[in-house]
Write a structure and sequence with these properties.
Blueprint: H1 2-24, H2 58-75, E1 83-84, E2 90-108, H3 113-118, H4 122-125, E3 127-145, E4 148-154, E5 161-169, E6 173-182, E7 186-191, H5 194-203, H6 208-217, E8 220-222, E9 227-239, H7 247-251, E10 256-257, E11 261-278, E12 285-305, E13 310-331, H8 335-345, E14 364-376, E15 382-396, E16 402-417
Antiparallel strand pairs: 1-10, 2-3, 2-16, 3-4, 3-7, 4-5, 5-6, 6-9, 7-8, 9-11, 11-12, 12-13, 13-14, 14-15, 15-16
Length: about 425
């Protein structure tokens, strides 16, 4: 009897315990843990960590920062109703770069006093007039990365020149650098008072020295490669109506001008040239170096069609020189040539070099541009662009030295955006 009672009590207790667990469910066995009572991290092995991206550290992170900075420069303060950034905002392009230049010098020529007494007015009126010109074309490869463009020449059948370009285009400001080295320059040389010498030689047929001078001063053709020109220029701009008007949309098509707009522009220009002449004047080599800084206010306009896929750009800026400088250096091929020169002109060793004495004059220069581009294909991936630039830079001084440089360059590009 006692055994049966113990068995009954055991069964009742077991049944009560199981029923209580079913009623309470999981809450009866899972404790409530507060934020301050978090258990220690499990000592179980961790999963393998993901490798860091190249763009999240080191040089990759630096490039990514540059990329973001360039895009911020394009987007700064723009009105997206008028302009925007292309969906594909990087571009590589192949271009044909054509260049034309006319370089005109009027160089006063000062003879020794002995000749001035023979021919009245010679010292005041004698000069050399030199006209040199060149035109050529070359292939170029360019990369435009969100407004930062680099252009390098492709040496195909062109041993005469090299041209390199660098540009930064933003919504508010930008700049462009260009360097050219040109040897395919030909032209003519003319002496201003040749008639007076010829008249004197006819009246004095026995004067062999004057006859020789007449032969030396006759008009002559300057053959290619006797001239060499190096040119460097830097241009910068500021756009007043930069929220609606994009100058870079016309030049490199790295912005999209959705609606037509125009703006006043401030342009600044620094122009430097080195003009070398071999065996053209009296020395073996004459080198003229000009430096000039100009600034001006002009106007630009973008005429937009097809929502910006087709664009025509026009701009013109009168420029005013604020700094001009000229340096002339003459060298001789041998000591004998220099001695002969000094014997003949020793009383006036700089008789044809007014550059060190003449004070530079104020000058009005000019800059103008026409550009057009067309985008097509999926996401406007392909771009055809053309731009033409014209520049005039002049130099003159109180000694009646004049240097006029006119140049135009045109570039036709086939671009691929990515």
């Amino acid at each position: 009897m006692r055994t049966l009672l113990l068995s009954f009590i055991t069964i009742v207790l077991a049944t009560f315990t199981c029923g209580a667990q079913e009623v309470l469910g999981d809450s009866a066995v899972v404790p409530v843990i507060t934020a301050g009572e978090l258990p220690p991290l499990s000592a179980e092995p961790k999963e393998a960590s993901q490798p860091r991206s190249y763009w999240d550290h080191g040089f990759g992170k630096f490039l990514k920062k540059i990329d973001q900075t360039l895009e911020e420069g394009q987007l700064s303060g723009i009105d997206t109703m008028y302009q925007t950034v292309p969906t594909l905002n990087r571009q590589v392009y192949l271009g044909v770069y054509g260049y034309w230049q006319n370089y005109s010098n009027r160089i006063p020529f000062y003879f020794p006093e002995a000749l001035n007494t023979l021919i009245p007015g010679l010292r005041e009126g004698a000069y050399y007039k030199i006209n040199a010109h060149t035109h050529q074309a070359e292939m170029e490869l360019g990369v435009d990365w969100k407004g930062l463009a680099i252009e390098i020449p492709i040496p195909i059948r062109n041993r005469y020149s090299a041209s390199y370009g660098l540009a930064k285009n933003g919504s508010v400001w930008g700049f462009r650098l260009r360097y050219k080295s040109i040897s395919s320059v030909a032209g003519t040389k003319r002496f201003g008072m040749l008639g007076a010498f010829e008249k004197y030689a006819k009246e004095h047929p026995d004067d062999e020295e004057i006859k020789q001078i007449v032969n030396d001063l006759k008009d002559e053709r300057i053959e290619s490669e006797n001239h060499h020109i190096n040119i460097f220029f830097a241009e910068g701009y500021y756009v007043f109506n930069h929220d609606k008007f994009s100058l870079s949309a016309g030049l490199f098509a790295d912005m999209v001008q959705k609606r037509s707009a125009g703006s006043l522009l401030v342009y600044a220009n620094y122009y430097q040239s080195r003009y070398l002449m071999n065996d053209i004047l009296l020395a073996g080599t004459d080198v003229y170096r000009t430096q000039q800084a100009s600034v001006g206010v002009g106007y630009g306009y973008n005429f937009s069609l097809l929502g910006g896929r087709l664009l025509f750009h026009f701009s013109a800026v009168p420029m005013f020189s604020v700094y001009s400088h000229l340096i002339h250096r003459a060298t001789f091929g041998s000591a004998e040539e220099e001695n002969d020169y000094n014997k003949l002109y020793g009383d006036d060793p700089k008789f044809y070099d007014p550059s060190d004495y003449g004070k530079s004059d104020f000058h009005v220069n000019a800059f103008a541009r026409f550009a057009t581009n067309f985008s097509f294909g999926p996401m406007n991936r392909y771009v055809i662009s053309l731009f033409i630039n014209y520049r005039y830079n002049g130099y003159s001084n109180s000694y009646k030295l004049h240097i006029n440089n006119q140049e135009a360059d045109a570039q036709f590009n086939l671009g691929y955006r990515f």
